[in-house]
Amino acid sequence: MTMDMEVQRKYSTAISKGAGMIEESRRLLEQWRPDEPLDDFTRRVQAEGILGNSTAYRTRDVVRRVFAPRFLRPSDKPARILQRVLASGLPGRVFTELLFVFAARQDPLVYDFTIREYWPAVRRGRPVMDTDPMLSFLSEAHYDGRLDNQWSEKVSVRIARCVLGLLRDVGFLREVVRGRREIVNYRMSDEGAAILARELNEAGVTDSSLCNHPDWGLFGMTPSEAVERLDGIGEHRGVIVQRAGSVVHFTWVVKSIEELIDVLAR
């Protein structure tokens, strides 16, 4: 990624509206209907208490500024995938992994920090992570144009805590005592890897580009590691990997991502 491209990735405080929100997202997805207008869904969430005792303002904030951007835009395919995963009975971590992918795609700050700071820290054997790496990351972002305006120290610390909270919720960090976050060398599930690969495939990513896609970096995987992982999943779970030198070809023995989820859940 060139500096010119990085400058175009503007960072925002969007994460402050809701970090992981894994349980809230689960509740919303269990009740979400693809054909229901967003305004109607928002009112129903409030009327039925789907988010507990949240105020009308908080409900509107969560649905319209967190749920919709992550899972309904530019299409509702992420919501449909997550809904299918929930209904399938797959392990909860698969849902969390895919939720993280969709959330990170909509938030360049989360995406870039995870790939450029978190995983290098894992590879260096760093035992804990506090807010300092994120604050340094934000300072660099201000100077190279990824932040339009430098945030105050208070805002920066709040955003740093939100991002680290998301990484904790996903399982990348473990908070053993308040404020002390231990780094976990997390390994993506086979099911999550297979679903991500198929989702990229259905989005138009070619076989030659699939394992080079930056999304694998969200789980610390290099292109060769992504190939090895998918190769190990096996034909009986939906995908055949054929390699000839540097050329990789994927043959899917399922017709859709929905069918793949069903196969993985058996």
Topology:
Layout: H1 3-8, H2 22-31, H3 38-47, H4 56-71, H5 77-88, H6 92-105, H7 108-123, H8 132-144, H9 153-170, E1 173-177, E2 180-183, H10 190-202, H11 207-210, H12 223-233, E3 239-244, E4 247-252, H13 257-265
Antiparallel strand pairs: 1-2, 3-4
Helix pairs in contact: 3-4, 5-6, 5-13, 6-10, 8-9, 10-12, 10-13
Structure description:
This protein has a two-stranded antiparallel ribbon with strand order 1-2. It has a two-stranded antiparallel sheet with strand order 3-4. It starts with a helix and ends with a helix. It has helices at residues 3-8, 22-31, 38-47, 56-71, 77-88, 92-105, 108-123, 132-144, 153-170, 190-202, 207-210, 223-233, 257-265, and strands at residues 173-177, 180-183, 239-244, 247-252. With 266 residues, the protein is mostly helical. Residues 1-7 have low confidence and may be disordered.
Number of helices: 13
Question: Based on CA inertia axes, which overall geometry fits?
Answer: globular
The parts where pLDDT drops under 50 for at least 5 residues are: 1-7
Q: Give the overall pLDDT as a whole number.
A: 92
| Residues in helices, as a percent range | 55-70%
The class by helix and strand makeup works out as mainly alpha
Please trace the helix and strand order, writing H or E for each element: HHHHHHHHHEEHHHEEH
Q: How is this structure best summarized?
A:
The protein is mostly helical and 266 residues long. It has 13 helices and 4 strands.
